[in-house]
Write a structure and sequence with these properties.
The N and C termini lie far apart (about 55 Å). About 80% of the residues lie in helices and about 0% in strands. The chain is mainly α. The chain has a domain of about 35 residues. It is built from three helices and no strands.
């Protein structure tokens, strides 16, 4: 059960490997791009949620019933 936990040593080793692979100058650029991607994803999810609510409220109540018959 304890084998699934990530400890401090494992995090340090992973950070060193990433530093060796990408270099010190490239890591801030990667993190900036990751942050922008997460922000765009959240904005897109909010837009999808708002659009689905708008389309449901814009549809007349009787229209759905008539389409089902």
């Amino acid at each position: 059960m304890n084998t699934l936990m990530i400890g401090t040593q494992e995090i340090i080793i992973i950070a060193l490997i990433v530093l060796l692979l990408f270099g010190g100058k490239k890591i801030p650029e990667l993190m900036r791009g990751l942050g922008k991607g997460v922000k765009n994803f959240k904005e897109g999810m909010n837009d999808v949620g708002e659009n689905s609510l708008d389309s449901k409220s814009a549809q007349p109540k009787g229209e759905h019933d008539e389409a089902a018959q």
